């Protein structure tokens, strides 16, 4: 496989591409391949379902959801919410069945560090570093068939060490 730096690329059909390198015109035939979805695709669906269920439960518990899936260079926070006077960063863990343990057990030391870094970045980004904040974990337990069994909310689940 060769890498080509091109000035411009034009598509001249479903399989043909014309590449201009300076004033030189090159035609290339691109082979169309069937691609499979990434193996984690089903996990992402499970995670999104868990995040939706967690957000609904948090709203019933008096939280106000501000943002979903905040991304930055330090990591991701599933939900950003307000609860009473606190800004709350929420990590949602979802499991189908119990073959891999409880959902909350999946919040590793590394993940805790990343959550703290990401929360600090969010606070700086939004100019609210002085605001009271915490990191909660929501565990969403589904049956092996995908039916909701239980949602557990752990307030102040992650603290700076």
Short structural summary:
The chain is an alpha+beta fold and 161 residues long. The chain is 23% helix and 41% strand.
Task: Walk me through the structure.
The chain is of the alpha+beta class and 161 residues long. The protein folds into 2 domains: 1-35; 41-158, Trna Endonuclease, Chain: A, domain 1. The protein is 23% helix and 41% strand. It is built from 2 helices and 8 strands, in the order βββαβββαββ. The protein is globular and about 45 Å long. Residues 1-21 and 28-42 have low confidence and may be disordered.
How are the SSEs ordered, and which strands pair?
Blueprint: E1 8-11, E2 16-21, E3 24-29, H1 41-60, E4 64-72, E5 75-83, E6 86-96, H2 109-125, E7 133-142, E8 148-158
Parallel strand pairs: 6-7
Antiparallel strand pairs: 1-2, 2-3, 4-5, 5-6, 7-8
Taken together, the total number of domains comes to 2
Strand order of the largest sheet: 4-5-6-7-8
Radius of gyration, whole Å: 22 Å
SS strand fraction:
35-45%
Helix segment count? Answer: 2
Low-confidence stretches: 1-21, 28-42
| The CATH architecture of the largest domain | 3-Layer(aba) Sandwich
Query: What is the C-level CATH assignment of the largest domain?
Result: Alpha Beta
* Main sheet overview: 5 strands, mixed
User: What is the total tally of β strands?
Assistant: 8
Note the overall shape.
globular
Mean pLDDT: 81
N-to-C SSE string, H for helix and E for strand: EEEHEEEHEE
CATH topology of the largest domain: Trna Endonuclease, Chain: A, domain 1
